Amino acid sequence: MSKIEINKRQSLIINKIKKIKHVTFDEIHDYLQYESDMSGSNYTTSRRTFARDIEDIGSLYGIYIQYNHSEKYYYIEEEYEPEISERMLEAFDMYHVLEVQERQSPYFHLEERRPQGMEHLYSLLHAIKNSLQITFNYRKYYEENTVSRTVEPLVLKEFKYRWYLFAKDINDGKKVKCYALDRLFDLTIHSTHFVDSEDFDINERLRYCFGIISPNAEKPTRVVLSFDAFNGKYAKSLPLHHTQEIIKDTEEELQISLNVYLTHDFLMELLSHGASVKVIEPESLIETLKNIYTEALKQYDAANGVKTKCVT
């Protein structure tokens, strides 16, 4: 059985127990048989395999399944981190959907763009949980050659439906670096254990970052943005950053403030909103965006033989 099928089976077990609360082994077995018939895969399990699944689920997801011996049912302990566990499960489930898409294609439609690197999630999570060194080949977008990296994996980070690995490069003074999973291949997990010094705090490192790019300044910058009323609703329902605060909220405008580093990721986010957002401050960010839009306009004017006049 492939790792993807094992992971999907464990996901089904979790979802079944979360939904029913108290569930017997026979009920889980029947549910896995039903899902096997529906998907064309084999998710059925023996009691011995089910016991191993319970151990793996606790180790990988931090979701601990217990057995009530007197009532003979399984249940999930109440104390676990649901947001982290469920986001990881979502990623695995999405990868499974992509894997079975061809068999079920008459029933749903997905974008042709296929996220890459998700097949490494299970192995990387195992290496992180067990403090095992890993080696992989890596190719940056702006370099043709691939490089081999041996690292101590620390944290998996999701950003805009892509996954990234933060790890210590043992050949570069154990400097913490970030690797995109879609550019990572030929992954090998070693039996070599490392001692986690716990000197890396992902929350602190990215506290004022938008995305995964490290700070480019000593202090974050206060940014004030103005949205029209319609697009402001989206900014309120899905905040751009956890530091977001509302300054003004009227029928015509939504003004918000953020405390962030002015990284490339943040700049790309602003550009993606086009004319629906206006930067109020800082002035340096306003000038940067003006220059980008001016250069972009020149490309279209040049194609039509028109000279661009910059009006300020």
Main sheet characteristics: 5 strands, antiparallel
Shape type? globular
Low-confidence stretches: 98-105
CATH topology name of the largest domain: SH3 type barrels
Number of helices: 10
Describe the structure.
By secondary structure, the protein is an alpha+beta fold. It folds into 3 domains: 3-79, Arc Repressor Mutant, subunit A (Orthogonal Bundle), CATH 1.10.10; 118-205, SH3 type barrels (Roll), CATH 2.30.30; 221-303, 2-Layer Sandwich (Alpha-Beta Plaits). It is built from 10 helices and 11 strands. It has a 5-stranded antiparallel sheet with strand order 6-5-4-3-7. A 4-stranded antiparallel sheet has the order 9-10-8-11. A two-stranded antiparallel ribbon has the order 1-2. Strand 4 and strand 5 form a beta hairpin. The protein is globular and about 75 Å long. Mean pLDDT is 82; it is low at 98-105.
